[in-house]
Amino acid sequence: MPSEKSIYNPNPAISRDAYISSMAEYRKFYEESLDNPEEFWMRVAKQFHWETPADPKKFLQYNFNINKGPISIKWMEGASTNICYNLLDRNVRNGLGDTIAYYWEGNHPDDYSRGLTYRKLLEEVCRFANVLKDHGVRKGDRVSIYMPMILELPIAMLACARIGAVHSIVFAGFSSDSLAERMFDCRAKVLITADGAWRGEKALYLKSLCDVALEKVEELGHTVEKCIVVSHLKRVTPCAEDHVEQDIPWTEDRDFWWHEEMEDKEPACYPEWMEAEDPLFMLYTSGSTGKPKGVLHTTAGYLLYAATTFKIVFDYKPGDIYWCTADIGWITGHSYVVYGPLANGATSVMFEGTPFFPDNDRFWAVIDKYKVTQFYTAPTAIRALMKFGEEPVLKHNLNGLKVLGSVGEPINPEAWLWFYRYIGKEKCSIVDTFWQTETGGHVITPIPGATPMKPGSASFPFFGVKPTLLDESGIEIKGEGEGYLVFSQPWPGMMRTLYNNHERFESTYFSKFPGFYCTGDGARRDADGYLWITGRVDDMLNVSGHLMSTAEVESVLTEHHRVAEAAVVSRPHPVKGECLYCFITPNENETFDPKLISELKKLVRERIGPFAMPDVVQHAPGLPKTRSGKIMRRVLRKVAVNDRNVGDTSTLADESIVEQLFQNRPVEA
Ligand code: ATP
Ligand code: MG
């Protein structure tokens, strides 16, 4: 029986064929990447096309120290390229024209599935690039995209990249207010959307939301000139019959159907050669900690980093079938549904639906259907699916899997072990990838053929990344210990600024510890040098002088067989300074009762220590989560002190949960 304390060595069959097949090999490359980053990334750059080559003397220039002047990060200054050309034309030229870039799986299993080859994708991208040009979009213009997981989404992104327009994708689960705020912030020229999206049995009418948002932007004093709309609702699903009659609101001269615009367009479009540091896209963070930040990524460095992390961390080989369940509206979808896989000529599955429709085995059914070899998802999805036990998993053949990935939150050992055992059948590598919208790609992660795994540890840094742990006063913690996770030198994929707000960029990430990029997350280094992400530093607890992380306590609580999810926050306490306030969601068909409360208190006491004994354990029918599935602990801190000024909750998936939690506060609290 696997246990949390054990170390899991990579399956020798995976190591044998892997790009990086041992820790010795990992260390060799890692040291090279730090000692001589220019040399290291110059080698990586050779596989891509550069219209103007980089000047080796100016391959990397940066200032990370706020006391020495403005923060700046430049990779490959002087080089020019086009990222779309590298993802599509280059691969077609190299003989991958007939290789499938995407298999598209609709919301309903009976939807037609579609495969798109690299050649066809290139043609569609060129045609849409011509549509954008006809509508006046030029290099440097911002294009907002608010779309479901359909193939037109990567087509729209790459069309922007081809002509040098900057895409700003807003996850299609966001409200019209959030969309308006983001379109206004970037002064979007054009909006691309769809009539709607399918989520299980429900249709979401996106175009109606867009109309409200476009009006709001107008009120704020900016006009989005055009809106291009994919007709999606009618074309696919057996559920559609009940919904097709819905009228799509339309404004003449502003709104255009995608398919009508595409009809007469040339399937060729000369790429715009972009400077290495020209913006590629902007993307707002999830808003777990406050107002979303408009993170800006640029061209050359992002290409190198997305491509390399994808190849190495998933150990992607020609013939593999890769599936990342993240929505393209998040950074995970940008780097690991679109840019990373396509840069490697990979074949991916793209999925419109949810894990629960039409049944709780949908993920496993899709893995079986396409014979997926690499599967990348989030702890929140794993925990939700664990609740249904193994039976839905056992209905399907998952034997093709080699690498399982996790991203978004610390994965608690309980969920890790379930993933390892029931999905990976104890023969897959699990890569617990720590990274952020800001980092552009994985920064701390196991490597499948090399890293002996510890459940819940993101383990070691990726090439080019130099993590340091600092204490509150900025002193480096060497060896074992816990502190602020910071990075002391740039890697190619990191953000360059916050859009139109370099000041906020510097103050958020570089002012707390001059000389370092500050992630805002805490981490612990164990005796073997493994890094364990302990969560956001704002979420740390200090009980009677004992410093603890929420992740640590939550992973103990979720070990209880009746608990599905747990979230822990601190509450001020007159004697202890702070005390623990726990929110518990029981498993399906389990009740929440005094017996469970006392068992949980006992469990924490035994596993962490008497000082960690929770003061309050509250029933939570659901937890307040961002639309990317992360627990918003700042809201829970408000519930714990019964303060209804909860702040900005616009990025919550379900705002009604907040009220329920206030209602559910136990009397003694
Ligand atoms: P905001 O910055 O607006 O509060 P956010 O930080 O949730 O939103 P993202 O950039 O999507 O937005 O998420 C990055 C954060 O997610 C990290 O800083 C970290 O807290 C968490 N995270 C991501 N992957 C992991 C992981 N493998 N282990 C632990 N934490 C992770
Ligand atoms: Mg963040």
TrEMBL record:
<feature type="domain" description="Acetyl-coenzyme A synthetase N-terminal">
    <location>
        <begin position="26"/>
        <end position="86"/>
    </location>
</feature>
<feature type="domain" description="AMP-dependent synthetase/ligase">
    <location>
        <begin position="97"/>
        <end position="497"/>
    </location>
</feature>
<keyword id="KW-0547">Nucleotide-binding</keyword>
<dbReference type="GO" id="GO:0005524">
    <property type="term" value="F:ATP binding"/>
</dbReference>
<dbReference type="InterPro" id="IPR032387">
    <property type="entry name" value="ACAS_N"/>
</dbReference>
<dbReference type="GO" id="GO:0019427">
    <property type="term" value="P:acetyl-CoA biosynthetic process from acetate"/>
</dbReference>
<keyword id="KW-0067">ATP-binding</keyword>
<dbReference type="InterPro" id="IPR025110">
    <property type="entry name" value="AMP-bd_C"/>
</dbReference>
<dbReference type="InterPro" id="IPR042099">
    <property type="entry name" value="ANL_N_sf"/>
</dbReference>
<dbReference type="Pfam" id="PF16177">
    <property type="entry name" value="ACAS_N"/>
</dbReference>
<protein>
    <recommendedName>
        <fullName>Acetyl-coenzyme A synthetase</fullName>
        <ecNumber>6.2.1.1</ecNumber>
    </recommendedName>
</protein>
<dbReference type="GO" id="GO:0016208">
    <property type="term" value="F:AMP binding"/>
</dbReference>
<keyword id="KW-0436">Ligase</keyword>
<dbReference type="InterPro" id="IPR011904">
    <property type="entry name" value="Ac_CoA_lig"/>
</dbReference>
<comment type="similarity">
    <text>Belongs to the ATP-dependent AMP-binding enzyme family.</text>
</comment>
<dbReference type="InterPro" id="IPR045851">
    <property type="entry name" value="AMP-bd_C_sf"/>
</dbReference>
<dbReference type="Pfam" id="PF13193">
    <property type="entry name" value="AMP-binding_C"/>
</dbReference>
<feature type="domain" description="AMP-binding enzyme C-terminal">
    <location>
        <begin position="552"/>
        <end position="630"/>
    </location>
</feature>
<dbReference type="InterPro" id="IPR000873">
    <property type="entry name" value="AMP-dep_synth/lig_dom"/>
</dbReference>
<dbReference type="InterPro" id="IPR020845">
    <property type="entry name" value="AMP-binding_CS"/>
</dbReference>
<dbReference type="Pfam" id="PF00501">
    <property type="entry name" value="AMP-binding"/>
</dbReference>
<dbReference type="GO" id="GO:0003987">
    <property type="term" value="F:acetate-CoA ligase activity"/>
</dbReference>
